[in-house]
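Session log. Operator J.P. requested a structure for one protein chain; no other inputs attached. Running the standard single-chain path with token output.
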Amino acid sequence: MPFPFKNINFLNPATFDGAVVYAIVLLLCALVLNRVLRLAVERALARGSHIHIDRTRVKFISQLAQIIIYIVAFFIYAHLIPALSNIGNAGLASVGVLSIVAGLAAQNTLGNLISGISLLLYRPFNVGDRLQVTAPTGLETGQIESLSLGYTILKTDDNRRVVLPNSLMASQTTVNMTRDDPRAICSVPVAISLDSDLDQARAILLEIAGSNPKTKKIVGCPVTNLDGSGVELTISIWCADSLAAGALRCDLLESVKRRFSSAGIKFPPVINYPAV
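Structure written below.
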């Protein structure tokens, strides 16, 4: 069907002016839709404290929807502009070759995208969960700050951002330290000399642990090792989470040093073996 306003150049998609006008209009529409979608998502997340909202899923789907809006706008533009339609028909024979080349060039990106979708479906972790992962820098522990289409960002305790590809997150073994039950056990081994009073040392350990506000429940304080140099006691305590467990360990070690010194309880001597 011929274009009804062919004499009006800026409304005729067959002309250069018309193609530019349609490109601007469709781009503005896509930008406005993305803006509306982003505001709706922010408003929904802001109500997260009042109603249950899966923040990870909402953010992921929002990013995917924004990309789809631009893709749909491009296809509408290509359908409206006759020149692009002709180019598409002429290049149909080379689509297979171009698809292979594009697939090889973007295999890492596509792999991250597919892995991100699998992470969203299976949900081994969510935004805000505390994870322990293996990165090129070694074992990293932190909180999931964001989960995007291609990457997962882990905020560590020392305020670093570890950017991990979703393909790596989907393939490696990850320790989720807060999923369902965030509690963590703090186990602190303490060694004393053979001539020190074992019962007194255990009583001091239990007293120190019981008076610390980070302690939720004391599991026990058994003897876990015995050799010619000394006796090892290990006190195990339930804490609210892994952060509290790490802080409690530091508190216990400092308090044990002071209390044992004042009570006359000695630590095992350090044995220096001769060099071979």
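Operator note: Residues 129 and 143 are 6 Å apart (CA to CA).
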